[in-house]
Amino acid sequence: MATMADVAREAGVSVATVSRLLNNLGVVSPETAARVYAAIEKLSYEPNLLARNLRKNESRVILILSPNITNPYYAHILSGIGDAAAELGYSALIFNTADDPARVREGLEMLKKHRADGAILMASDMNCAWLLEYADEYPLVQCSEYGPDVDIPHVSIDNYRATRDIMEYLIGLGHRRIAHISSENDYISTSLRLKGYRDALAEHGLTSRDDYIIYASRDYSFKSGKAKARELLAVEPRPTAIFCISDTLALGAITAVKEMGLRVPQDVTVIGFDDVEHTTMFHPYITTVAQPCYEMGKESARLLYALMMQEKQVPRQSILEHRLIVRESTSPPAELE
């Protein structure tokens, strides 16, 4: 049977470091922790975790508050969190909030009951100052969405810059009548993408028309994307391009275009956001912005671990790189061909 000394030798650290990590008696870097847990797994070392957890009043569980676990966008983030948690010796517990603030509070109450040691929130809206009552007592990290004026660490991409990249691409193709399918939600990403859309039009001397901006359901459903695209395509003059703030909305928009007897991209260009797997399941493959969802999940777990270990220098924000991926659903407008 492996001992703590065996684990220390395998990981290349001292016995004191292994003990400190397993008993949360001091700060251990994420890299060192990962080596120690890898050694534990390799050697099948079995510390008396139950007794230790009872003594320390900890659970070794990370709580994940997700608004919709069936959404493919969240699935990759959840995978990243789960893998990073396992590397650090934690389990991940997913709590589906159904995008209901009351359910978010219900989930966070698990921290008070010591059923989790910290939480990652995946859909904080911009009016989430109330979270500070929990963040003052427990480690919290916001992933993807966050409150811009709330001092809780967050992981995201630069949604404004990503939208400007999309708009520069569309305008560069020659599009001047660009519509936007936004959402009824109150997420920072939604706000920044709308701002990026409007700012890009203004910078190029193009009018931001109110009838070219429409709001789909707060959960970016395919059905609402289809319905809102039909409304846009009835506007005169018809937009030559539609920028959707999610790939699911873009899929709905493409379906609407086809059902109205039009073609993508020959008659209407459609562009999405997120790069979920569905974007390349059917033709035309969707031009979109790729978010590093898996890496966002892993980074969120690492930030939370740093907070739980009470490290002194924990970044308040981590902005990861996005990529514009050009596929089949975009082309110059027909009048330029």
Largest sheet: number of strands, sense, barrel closure:
6 strands, parallel
Cα(first) to Cα(last) distance is 74 Å
Side-by-side strand order of the widest sheet: 2-1-3-4-5-11
Unreliable residue runs: 49-55
* Topology, number of strands: 12
Keywords: DNA-binding, Transcription, Transcription regulation
Domain HTH cro/C1-type: 3-50
GO molecular function, one term: transcription cis-regulatory region binding
Domain HTH lacI-type: 2-56
Any overview of this molecule?
The chain has 337 residues and is α/β, with parallel strands linked by helices. Helix 1 (4-11) crosses helix 2 and helix 1 packs across helix 3. The protein contains twelve helices and twelve strands. Helix 9 links the parallel strand 6 (178-183) and strand 7. It has helices spanning 4-11, 15-23, 30-43, 49-56, 72-87, 101-112, 132-135, 159-173, 188-203, 222-233, 247-259, 293-308, and strands at 61-66, 91-96, 118-121, 140-143, 154-157, 178-183, 213-216, 241-244, 269-271, 288-290, 317-320, 323-325. InterPro entries: Cro/C1-type_HTH (IPR001387), HTH_LacI (IPR000843), LacI/GalR-like_sensor (IPR046335), Lambda_DNA-bd_dom_sf (IPR010982), Peripla_BP_I (IPR028082). Keywords: DNA-binding, Transcription, Transcription regulation. This is Transcriptional regulator, LacI family.
